[in-house]
Amino acid sequence: MSNQKHKLYLGIAGQLLSGKSSASNFLVQRFKAEHLRFSKLLDEMLDILDLEKNRFNEQQMGVLVKELFGEESLSNALKARAELSEKNVILFDGLRKKQEVDFLRQLPGFKFIYIKASPEIRYQRMRNRKEKVGESEQTYEEFLKSEAHEADKQIAQLEQLADFVISNESTPEQFEALLTRLLTTDL
Questions:
Q1: pLDDT tens per residue across span 134-174
Q2: Is the CATH number 3.40.50.300 carried by domain 3-186?
Q3: Given its phi and psi angles, is residue 117 left (phi above 0), alpha (psi -120 to 50 degrees) or beta?
Q4: What's this model's pTM, rounded to 2 decimal places?
């Protein structure tokens, strides 16, 4: 008997530093969710090639993989990992295109969450986090320009496809309360 019937599949999207990883990390901790990220797949490929893990390389790798193997190649890889998971809540973090959302909607009970925050707040988060090489030195204009890259330019349009839109411009506690309410009452 397949465990798939009892799983809750959640897609999470939002602009860079809107709070996708914060949401996912909270849901993993609070609801013991499986956290699957498109960027993790790309980082694994960059590791194999001994290339630096940075936003530009991830963007380039994502475009290349999709050009060579099809738009659904990364979605297929994450879907396969999800189906193997023993967890009841599966998060697909970092959706970037309508095709990815449409593909994952094939999963039973799939729900799509869009997280948003203003560009100013997201830029300040980037300056503070220093997660990827060169981020803390980026100007605001460079930050905005990076969102126009082929890999990221469709993200803002995903908001209209969302089952739920959550604003992440308040405190972490308020954001977590919204996520908890979503999973315990709205789904």
A1: 777 888 998 888 877 776 788 989 999 999 999 999 999 99
A2: yes
A3: beta
A4: 0.83
